[in-house]
Every structure is written in structure tokens, then in C-alpha cells.
Write a structure and sequence with these properties.
GO terms for molecular function: pseudouridine synthase activity; RNA binding. There is one protein chain. The protein is of the alpha+beta class. Residues 152-162, 408-438 and 506-510 have low confidence and may be disordered. It has a domain at 45-143 and 167-193: 2-Layer Sandwich (Alpha-Beta Plaits), CATH 3.30.70.580. The protein contains ten helices and twelve strands. The strands form two sheets. Strands 1, 2, 3, 4, 5, 6, 7, 8, 9 and 10 form a ten-stranded mixed beta sheet that branches. Strands 11-12 form a two-stranded antiparallel sheet. It has helices spanning 2-10, 14-30, 80-90, 175-182, 233-241, 301-313, 320-326, 370-399, 430-435, 468-509, and strands spanning 50-59, 118-119, 128-139, 187-193, 208-217, 245-248, 265-275, 286-294, 345-351, 360-361, 441-443, 451-453.
Length: 510
């Protein structure tokens, strides 16, 4: 065969031989070498020891639909807890219990009792946290204890081994670094606690949750002659003090009938309005925050509390309104009003008893260390700061009719807005006046833009929600009817299945 080919090729011209070589090389390139895929190695949790730890987590909540993962939600969610669960699963720090063939969207580890999973706070859509705490049982580097053998070595035998001391910081898995490599940049694990007490629960062991709600004064652009968006901080502070103590906050929350809550008493340890220090005296609107410390909070409680303070600060209500709404004997039903915007709210810290949790923070150097976390956060801050500078410059251009260099207005000082390099000037306020013609009322609710409503109706004169007992009873009845209807549907479906099976058997016999 080879001699035949040699004889054929010997008669070919150089041009034909080159063409043949190129043809063969082209065919060779098209041949794909398919390497068999290695089967994924299954994670066997029984081969590893575990330990119960606590994690201290910070996140910016603007891109997420809240903290809590909803396992049975029919709609796609994008929660912080979901990202944490996925990171724990991908790092194989927890076992994956997802059934083979089940949809990929179903997480195989929703934080069950075996994992001893707990969380301190359940922040809502848009809300951030700088001191969130969770507890979880995870895979450990510590060796499994040796199984006892029948042959017990006598003391002093050569086979006896000294137990090597295990160092939690040196020898253990670097949990924050592992998780930070897998989490989005705006969710960071700051520290971990190697030895929470037995039976630790991030929810029930937490003594106090501290919140901060940030806002500016003024809350909207205005001229020195206008007070539409200017807030009375002293009245706001006076009203905030009335929250302190043990009160029934049913008029300051959103009712979740599915939980059938009947007690709304919550303890507030501290409530105040604090001014945030500024880098320079003429740097524009002052920034404040509503500081709130409490043992626990109801659903949307903080946002309802600050919403009432905004109304008082605008002069639409008096500080005494807080005491009136806390008096359930006078006002057992919640008046209808809008809660404050979510974006400015931060779960600032979760406080535990002294000595309960010893935090081990990430070191400065190394992959996903403290320095790298700072770099990630700094880049986010830098982007926001540049946006602030650009929008401030644009406001200056618009307010001076496009010529900031020569307009004399820029030389004046606004006592409300400041006279810094990027302060808002007296001309940038026409929109608010136009929108408030007639009986329209501007309402400050902490968002980027004010709300424009009709004639203002005092809170205590507004329509009221139904009694809590009525709302809970209606939901319970509806849930009962739904469950009863579901049972009826199941019985009917079984009857149809039996009938179809009988028809099939009859057809086969014929």
C-alpha cells in the first residue's frame, strides 16, 4: 500500500504536492479531540468535621430585594441571604441536599435545623447593614476524632501519639476570605467567631439592634427665602425622645397577617437625631441621621417612625403626635400614611452580651484580606463621589444659566445650601414652587425626590385601618377555606385518577 502511494506521489508536481499537504492539514485542524469529562466529585460531609461559627456581614442593599431567602417563592428573587447560601454551597462549607434532577434554581441548603442556622436581622428591600450577624455550622479543617479500637494501648506505649493543638486562626479555614471570593462586591464578610456559646442563636441572643436613617437638611433644593424643604431638627429631636421606653407600636408598622401577631410591644433604648460631621463648614446641605436602638423591631417599624418625624420636622404635625399614636387606648387602629423611603436605612450594628462573641477579623494582606475589601468598597465610594461632583457641577451650570464663571450669584452665600465649590445656588428652586400651586403639598419621605400630594390631612383625622384582631381573623378564615378547598381538590383529583385507571383497564380487557 505504501509503495503504491509512493509511486502515485512520485509523479505529482511540486504544486500538486503542496496542495495535498494543505488539504490534509486542514482536515487535521477540523478534527476535535474530545476528552471525556471527569465526573464531578461528590462532596461527602461525613468525611469532615464541622463547627458552629458566627459570621459578621456587611452589605449595601440597594441592588437587592431584602435579606431573607424565600425558598418557595414563585417569582425569582435576588436577596442577600440567597447569595450567602450559594457561596456556602459552592465552597462546600455546607452539604448540598438538592435532589438529583431538581431544578438548578432550587437551593439544596435553605438553612435547616441541622445546620444550626440563625440570623439576627431581616432587612427589607433596599435596606443596608453594616453589622448583620448569622450563625451556621460549617465544614472545618479540624481532624475528625479517631474511632475507638478494641486494642487499648497501655500508657507509655510507643504507639501513643500526642494530640497536636489546633489553632483557630492559624489552622482553620479562612471563612471570610473563602466566602468573599464568591460573593458580590457589595456583600462582604468582615469577621468570624470561632466559639459562639452552645445553642447560640443570632436572633435570640442579640440584646440590641441599632439602626440609622440618613437624611439631608434641607431635603430638597430651595432658595434662602423658601422653607418648603427645610426641616426643624429640634422638633424632630423632641419627638424622637418620645419613642424611648416600652410601647405598643402597632401604629408604626406594617401588619403581616400571615404571622398572626397579637403583641406589638417593643422596647426602645435610645432615639435621637444626630448631625454628621462635615469636612468643611461650607460643603452644602447638612447631613443627619435618626439613631435608634431597640431590642427588636416590627415589620417596617423604623421607616414608619422616621416618616412621622419628617412630618413633624416640616411643621405639618406637632411632636405630641408621637405620644398620641403610642396611646392605643385612644388610637387602637392605625391611621393610613406612607412610610419613609428604604434606601437611607442601615442596620448599623447587632449587639450581643459582653464576651459572648470574640470576632476574628480578616488580616490586612492576602487575597480577600482587609486591604482588598477596602479597595472594593473604595472603588464603589469613588464612583458615587464622582457622580456627586458631576451632578453638583451640572446643578451649578443650570442654576446660573450656563455661565458659572461670570454669574455674580455664585459669589453670594446661601445660609441653607452653603457656598462651597459644589453647593446648590439660589436659582435652582423654580420647580418646587411650580409644583406646589393651588392645594398641592410637598411631603419629605427620605427619598431622592419629594412626594407631591393634595391638601394635607392631619394624621389623626385620616382613615383608619381595621382592628388587628379583625385583619388576623379574616386571614385565618381565608387560609382555612383555602386549605379546605385544597383537600377537596385532592379528593376530586384522586377520583379522576381512579376513573381513568378503570377506563384503561377496561380498554385492555377488550
Amino acid at each position: 500500500m505504501e509503495k503504491t502511494r509512493e509511486k502515485i506521489y512520485s509523479s505529482w508536481t511540486q504544486k500538486d504536492l503542496i496542495a495535498r499537504i494543505l488539504e490534509l492539514e486542514g482536515k487535521q485542524e477540523k478534527i476535535k479531540v474530545i476528552h471525556p469529562k471527569k465526573p464531578k466529585r461528590k462532596f461527602d460531609p461525613s468525611l469532615y468535621s464541622t463547627r458552629h461559627i458566627a459570621l459578621r456581614i456587611a452589605y449595601l442593599g440597594g441592588n437587592y430585594t431584602g435579606f431573607e431567602y424565600h425558598a418557595n417563592s414563585p417569582n425569582p428573587t435576588n436577596t442577600i441571604e440567597e447569595h450567602i447560601f450559594k457561596a456556602l454551597l459552592k465552597a462546600r462549607l455546607v452539604p448540598n441536599n438538592r435532589i438529583e434532577g431538581e431544578e438548578e434554581t432550587v437551593l439544596g441548603w435553605p438553612g435547616d435545623e441541622v445546620a444550626e442556622y440563625s440570623k439576627c436581622g431581616r432587612t427589607d428591600t433596599g435596606v443596608s447593614a453594616f453589622g448583620q450577624v448569622i450563625g451556621v455550622r460549617v465544614r472545618s479543617n479540624r481532624s475528625l476524632p479517631e474511632k475507638p479500637t478494641d486494642d487499648v494501648a497501655e500508657e507509655g506505649d510507643e504507639g501513643e501519639k500526642e494530640e497536636i493543638e489546633f489553632d483557630d486562626e492559624r489552622d482553620e479555614l479562612p471563612y471570610p476570605q473563602i466566602l468573599n471570593r464568591l460573593l458580590p462586591k457589595d456583600i462582604r464578610v468582615l469577621a468570624w467567631c470561632p466559639h459562639p456559646p452552645p445553642g447560640f442563636s443570632a436572633r435570640f441572643n442579640c440584646q440590641q439592634r441599632n439602626y440609622r436613617y440618613f437624611f439631608t437638611n434641607p431635603a430638597i433644593a430651595l432658595s434662602p427665602s423658601s422653607t418648603v424643604g427645610s426641616l426643624d431638627i429640634e422638633k424632630m429631636r423632641e419627638a424622637a425622645k418620645l419613642y424611648i421606653g416600652n410601647h405598643d407600636f402597632r401604629n408604626f408598622c406594617k401588619l403581616d397577617a400571615s404571622k398572626q401577631i397579637t403583641r406589638f410591644d417593643r422596647i426602645i433604648h435610645h432615639a435621637d437625631i444626630v448631625e454628621l460631621p462635615q469636612s468643611s463648614p461650607n460643603s452644602g446641605p447638612k447631613v443627619y441621621y435618626f439613631e435608634l436602638h431597640g431590642s427588636a423591631f416590627l415589620w417596617h417599624q423604623v421607616r414608619h417612625m422616621i416618616a412621622i418625624l419628617f412630618l413633624i420636622a416640616q411643621g405639618l404635625e406637632q411632636p405630641s403626635l408621637v405620644a398620641e399614636m403610642l396611646d392605643i387606648s385612644k388610637n387602637p387602629r392605625k391611621p393610613m400614611y406612607e412610610m419613609a423611603d428604604d434606601r437611607a436605612l442601615v442596620l448599623w450594628d447587632c449587639v450581643f452580651p459582653d464576651g459572648m462573641l470574640r470576632w476574628v477579623y480578616t488580616r490586612g494582606t492576602g487575597l480577600e484580606g482587609r486591604n482588598e475589601i477596602l479597595d472594593d468598597i473604595w472603588s464603589q465610594w469613588h464612583k458615587s463621589k464622582i457622580d456627586e461632583i458631576l451632578t453638583s457641577g451640572l446643578m451649578k451650570i443650570i442654576s446660573t444659566n450656563g455661565n458659572p464663571a461670570t454669574d455674580p450669584v455664585l459669589q453670594s452665600t446661601s445660609p441653607i445650601l452653603g457656598s462651597g465649590e459644589f453647593s446648590v445656588t439660589t436659582q435652582a428652586v423654580g420647580v418646587a414652587k411650580k409644583k406646589t400651586k393651588g392645594k398641592s403639598q410637598i411631603l419629605i419621605e427620605g427619598g431622592h425626590e419629594p412626594l407631591f400630594r393634595g391638601m394635607y390631612i392631619p394624621i389623626l383625622q385620616r382613615k383608619r385601618m381595621e382592628d388587628v384582631e379583625v385583619i388576623n381573623a379574616r386571614y385565618a378564615d381565608k387560609k382555612g377555606d383555602w386549605q379546605e378547598n385544597r383537600k377537596k381538590r385532592e379528593v376530586k383529583r384522586k377520583a379522576v385518577d381512579i376513573e381513568e385507571e378503570e377506563i384503561a383497564q377496561t380498554s385492555e380487557s377488550l
